[in-house]
Amino acid sequence: MKKSQAPNAVVLHSRWKKSLAATALSISLTPLAASVQAQTNASPRSDQPSLRQIEEVIVTARRREESAQSVPIAVTALDAGELEEFNISDIGDLQYFDASLNVSSSSGRPNAPVYSLRGVRPTEAIFGQDPTVAIYLADVVLSPAKGSNLGMYDLASVQVLKGPQGTLFGRNTTGGAILLTPKKPGEVISADIMVGFGSYGLMETEFGVDLPVTDTFAMRLAGRTTDEDGHQKNVAPGKYYGDKRGGGENYSTRLTAIWNVSETIQNDTILTWDKTDLNGRTPVLQTVNPSSSLALYNGGAPFGLPSMFDALSRAQNRDVHKIESDMRERSQADVWGIINTTTIDFNENLSLKSIAAYRDLDAYEVVDLDATAIPGVLTSMQTTELEHASYELQLLGSALDSKLDWVTGLYWYYEDGIEDSPGNVFEGINPANPFMQTATMHNNSYSLFSQGTYQFDNAWSVAAGIRWTYDDKELTTSSRTPLNCAMFDDTGAPLPIDQCSVKMTESFSQPTGTVSIEYQPNDDTMFYASTRLGYRAGGFNARASRAVEYQPFDPETVVDLELGSKIDWSLDQWMMRTNAAFYHQWYDDIQRTVAVDNPVGTPGSAIENAAEATVLGFEIEQTVSPTENLTLKLQYVYTDAEYAKWEEPASGKDLSDTPFYFTPEHAFTASVSYSYPLANDTGVLRFSANAAYQDDVWLNALQTIELIDQTPANLRSSLQQDAFWLVGLSLGWDNVLGSKLDLSAYVKNLTDEEYALGGVMLYPTFGLSTKVYGEPRNYGMQLRYQF
């Protein structure tokens, strides 16, 4: 695709003409196919027989409960049954059911995932930087990303909202949002308990108990535990032999209480606690640069040290799940939080909602970045203490004979934390090289918002919203070795040891918003056109130690234009649902972390705004339900992302050929569910399968095209992940012999595919590349009892 010269200049090459034609074909032919059937799904006419419907999915994409088929947003939603059926217990699993989502790991930190939607992704999950895709639990943002992957249990639904969310959600994001909705207490005393076991020593439990205390007060207590040995084996000689990685322990619990204070006032309170102690996921060494600083280790014998080349040779000749490391890697987190939501209904046309939340996170991580058993080459540790609070006040109503639905409100968000990052660089050669990096942040965000939807008639409606956000950020950073301050002034001279810190403050503000037009000729068909502006606040580099790294980076923005259709139709007795979206995103002032040289010998980095990019995409989701017992879902996503302009600030070099990382051009998901009722009420047999395909991708975002070109051509495969498939299967027997017992068995990664989730690529700078691999084939069984 040729680079566009202006936001309104969209140039389509042949493959985009095909995608556009496919969109037009979907929009034009689906209603025609629907007309083959005399009766559509929803709202059957009184003179026609009622037909079976595809289950309606309720979403809260516009802060109201409504059908996913009626909102002008591309959204993938999974209900509680699908989450259980496909054993989705981690946010990372969602990418195998939504091809536009990518969840990756830059350096093996399982509690610090990086989320991407439609190619919009931060370089990494780093202290003090806002995510591009925000995670919400019960309408409250879990930001920053560290620890946001906890809590994927006892959920009523998961919603993936695609595209910039610039109006109704508290933390504006340029990529999208993932909404986690916990189950609410039931009206009768009941419980369900699950016990499971599986490969690599997995033992798991999950429970949910409904306790209706009075007619107006009810609680639900839910929890989940896992204990796993891990799939990696440390084969380094000596005392580390036999150490398992990739496993660990998780404990989570959630208490939800609903109090109907009166007929017009409801108060919901959610208490959460999550504790995880994982062994981490050790990187695997891919390349070593003989011309880099690591050459000191490559000879081995002159220094009495093991050779990096020997370690590389061993890694290249063994299974990727066998690793070498000189330390026990850890990824620990202890998180607790409280959410209180109070709703007051003044009348049927006006209500007030208050959402207050507080969250506290303590985390500890150790990563062996050099992926060898050689002591002190490159190790990283992080201790994080973070708290954040938020308050949102919404006024919701309808007016003009219910033709206008509106919401307006205000929002406040606060985060305060400190992160200590001790590490070792070449300690085996220079014992003075260990360093301590400390970053302290104090951030506040304030916003006002308003959005309304006006229904002109039974078919046409328009929605418009606006938000104004003000972010006030402060970061103090310090770095020192045992002997010296490792912070430098503008001249390159080290700061005095008693003044070894730099304080940075900056404020950012941005209006954002959305406009959409919807056309619904009947209850089963909707076409829409929407445009949105999303904003991600600027900030500072928590790793800064010299002038080029101190500079604050500006906010990034995404403006998109999306055309879509959502259609329920039928062909004879086959029920169909076809949702399609074609979008164009103008991505400006992109925040990118780039590698830079550092005087103290550590791999340095700076954060800069990488000018402009365009992302064009086409997404289609097809649901086919031939019978009540059989459902097939297919999704195809095409993404064309490239930089329109990117110049290196210091040298003026053109970096616009840098690829978009973790963004496959083609991605595909498929799932099938089949149930078979047994005779004599002896239960129901279930079978389900899912498959996900991802095109080849570039892995580490620190690699600009300049650094890629400095990597030998025969080694560039270490920067990429080839295309691969992941396949999962599940078998179940519900209500065994008429009882309340359910049995199920599953297998994930059926074909035992080797695939990388991320890595650290520092070949031209520091001198090595590593990859972090996903889990091999694993399986398990679960027993669930309800009473």
Task: Characterize the structure shown.
Belongs to the TonB-dependent receptor family. Residues 68-177 form the TonB-dependent receptor plug domain. The protein has 787 residues and is mostly beta strands. The protein has a single domain (14-786), classed as Maltoporin, Chain A, CATH 2.40.170. Helix content is 7%, strand content 52%. It has six helices and 41 strands. The chain has a 22-stranded antiparallel β-barrel. Strands 3-8-9-6-7 form a five-stranded mixed β-sheet. Strand 1 (58-59) and strand 2 (66-67) form a beta hairpin. The radius of gyration is 27 Å and the shape is globular. The N and C termini lie far apart (58 Å).
How does the SSE layout of this entry go?
Blueprint (H helix, E strand, L loop, with lengths): L13 H23 L21 E2 L6 E2 L7 E5 H6 L15 E4 L9 E4 L15 E5 L2 E2 L13 E8 L13 E7 L7 E9 L3 E11 L4 E12 L3 E3 L9 E2 L2 E13 L4 E14 L5 E5 L6 H4 L9 H9 L5 E2 L6 E18 L2 E19 L9 E22 L4 E22 L9 E21 L4 E21 L21 E21 L2 E12 L10 H4 L5 E16 L2 E15 L2 E6 L7 E6 L2 E16 L2 E16 L20 E12 L6 E11 L2 E2 L6 H6 L9 E2 L2 E11 L6 E8 L7 E7 L5 E6 L4 E9 L1
Parallel strand pairs: 6-9, 13-18
Antiparallel strand pairs: 1-2, 3-8, 4-5, 6-7, 8-9, 10-11, 10-41, 11-12, 12-15, 13-14, 15-16, 16-19, 17-40, 19-20, 20-21, 21-22, 22-23, 23-24, 24-25, 25-26, 26-27, 27-28, 28-31, 29-30, 31-32, 32-33, 33-34, 34-37, 35-36, 37-38, 38-41, 39-40
